[in-house]
């Protein structure tokens, strides 16, 4: 069974502060993929990043960075110098490879973290 | 390049009725997945279609069924609607081979009264 836990239900920070969103996952598969999606008030899930279980390099994209640690089963997301436009619900998701040859297994989502950036 | 589109945007139905939601995948994508997102929750996987067949299914009752057409578009049907079926229904499309992110549509907000 797969599980994603986002313990932070809601976070509020003042604009320009840094903020880290936590994600802890569970899976018995050795090959898996982790994702972060952003859901603004419009409702559409916007893809942010995908990481596979064999690549533990941290990644930085502009103000966004991701820290993947297999030892603690965590895939945390940090926004540096937050902006009001970052206000949204953020979801961490897990996709584990099965015996099939397909790569796009179902996504298992966490319950999300609502991030509010206060101007 | 059109993204994933869904129709209708909003829908209000009465308990016991049946509903059909529609999804057109992103250009070039051949796989469609459906998710249900209850208020305040993360999306829950319903099923996935590829080559007009259901390839994977989540923990949803048989009242939830789907279809994929030769042009890769898809429909989600829900019979005998319950109040608990009220949710945002999200469609996601992807390529069948390789590990590619799933692109989501704007969703259909279903309200069952």
Molecular structure report:
The complex is a heterodimer of chains A (119) and B (113). Chain A contains no helices and twelve strands. Chain A is mainly beta and 119 residues long. In chain A, the strands form three sheets. In chain A, strands 2, 5, 6, 10, 11 and 12 form a six-stranded mixed β-sheet that branches. The radius of gyration of chain A is 14 Å and the shape is globular. Chain B is mostly beta strands and 113 residues long. Chain B has strands at 5-7, 10-13, 19-24, 31-37, 44-50, 53-57, 64-68, 74-78, 87-94, 103-104, 108-112. In chain B, strands 2, 4, 5, 6, 9, 10 and 11 form a seven-stranded mixed β-sheet that branches. Chain A binds chain B through residues 4, 33, 35, 37, 42-47, 50, 52, 91, 93, 95, 102-112, and chain B through 31, 33, 35, 40-45, 48, 50, 55-56, 58, 88, 90, 92, 94-107, 109.
